[in-house]
Structure formats: structure tokens, C-alpha cells
Design goal:
heterodimer, A: 113 residues, seven-stranded mixed sheet, four-stranded antiparallel sheet, 0% helix, B: 113 residues
């Protein structure tokens, strides 16, 4: 199965700033997914990123707040912009891993103060 | 639209006892079903998945799940749990097309020595 390297693993940020999270996959994948896991809650899909096209955002998420880049088939970034304490969450990237389902990165634990 | 219900938010169980974590789904079309495990401060790991075929699915770490279409359930079971099974378990569903995955709210399994 694919191996995903996600970084940073955690960060503490000041409100009003932005943080860019990176995901590197060890194989080429068509689709990458970004999720948010708020404290004590389940995972919510933010957007789906295909290489060479704009990301598709789920209801409640907008590009200005969560811009995504997908420059090639092994890499993607998610930026959390103009952060507020409500953005404190774990952010995870995921790839469709053929017949194995979905593989997840280890997550980025973000705390906004 | 698809949805997943995990009926128990927390399940305490003694070591070496059996456990069942319940999951029910709702969808108007055929689905794929998954169980993921999240250990503290880690990402998600796929335990098992049902795509088609046999309704009894065996996964890693001695876990298994049974797909019951009439009851729209996909309960996770293990005959004898270990301390190392203490984690949060997420049931997930994806409609055919295999793109968007919807997660349940998770069940925290606490194994008591």
C-alpha cells in the first residue's frame, strides 16, 4: 500500500496567521483527499485534489480559507488561512489506494492560540 | 446521501473478553464499507473493508466484520481483545464510485487489564 509522509506533525500558531501542511506519497496517485478531525469528532472531508485541476470543496469549505495545491501525482499541500481558534483540529491527507481502500497520513495536529 | 451511525461512543471491555462494535449505514445505492482504527496521536489505519463477495470479512489484528444488507449493518468483532487494541474505531461508507467516504463518529474501545 502507499506510504504517506505528512508534515508538520503538529504546530501551535497565532490567530490570523496561515499554516501550510504537506503530504508526500511514495507512488503516483490520481486523487488526494484532505480531511479535518475536530476535537472529539469524526473526520470531515474538506476537499478532493486532482493533479492539474482545481480542488473540489465540500459544503462548508471554501478555497479562500483552505487553498490546496496539487502540482504533481505524488504531492499536495493544504493551507489553513487566517486561522482562528476554531481551526484547531487534526488535518489528514488520504489517497485512494487501489483495492486496498484509502491510506491516511499520520495527521497534523494544529492548535491556534 | 450516505450516512453512518456508530451506536456506542465508548466501549469498555476486559482483556481477553470478546467485543462487538456496532455500525449501521444508510444509502440508496450499493456501498463499500470500511473499519479504520486510530491509535492515540496517530493517523488512521485500515482494519478491513467490504467491497463485494463474502459477507464475512477478516482484517488485521484478529478483527472481523459481517455485512448484513437487510439490517444495513457492518458490526466489528474480535473474540479476545488485548490491551494494545485500546484505540478509537471508525466505521466508514462509500457509495459505488469509490470517491467520497463518510465516517461515523467513532467508538473508543478501552481494554481493561
Amino acid at each position: 500500500s502507499a506510504v504517506i509522509s505528512q508534515k508538520p506533525s503538529r504546530d501551535i500558531c497565532q490567530r490570523g496567521t496561515s499554516l501550510t501542511i504537506q503530504c508526500q506519497v511514495d507512488s503516483q496517485v490520481t486523487m488526494m483527499f484532505w480531511y479535518r478531525q475536530q476535537p472529539g469528532q469524526s473526520l470531515t472531508l474538506i476537499a478532493t485534489a486532482n493533479q492539474g485541476s482545481e480542488a473540489t470543496y465540500e459544503s462548508g469549505f471554501v478555497i479562500d480559507k483552505f487553498p490546496i495545491s496539487r502540482p504533481n501525482l505524488t504531492f499536495s499541500t493544504l493551507t489553513v488561512s487566517n486561522m482562528s481558534p476554531e481551526d484547531s483540529s487534526i488535518y489528514l491527507c488520504s489517497v485512494e489506494d487501489g483495492s486496498r481502500g484509502y491510506t491516511f497520513g499520520s495527521g497534523t495536529r494544529l492548535t491556534v492560540v | 446521501a450516505q450516512s453512518v451511525t456508530q451506536l456506542d461512543s465508548q466501549v469498555p471491555v476486559f482483556e481477553e473478553a470478546p467485543v462487538e462494535l456496532r455500525c449501521n449505514y444508510s444509502s440508496s445505492v450499493s456501498v463499500y464499507l470500511f473499519w479504520y482504527v486510530q491509535y492515540p496521536n496517530q493517523g488512521l489505519q485500515l482494519l478491513l473493508k467490504y467491497l463485494s463477495g463474502s459477507t464475512l470479512v477478516k482484517g488485521i489484528n484478529g478483527f472481523e466484520a459481517e455485512f448484513n444488507k437487510s439490517q444495513t449493518s457492518f458490526h466489528l468483532r474480535k473474540p479476545s481483545v488485548h490491551i494494545s487494541d485500546t484505540a478509537e474505531y471508525f466505521c466508514a461508507v462509500s457509495e459505488r464510485g469509490y470517491q467520497k467516504v463518510t465516517f461515523g463518529t467513532g467508538t473508543k474501545l478501552q481494554v481493561i487489564p
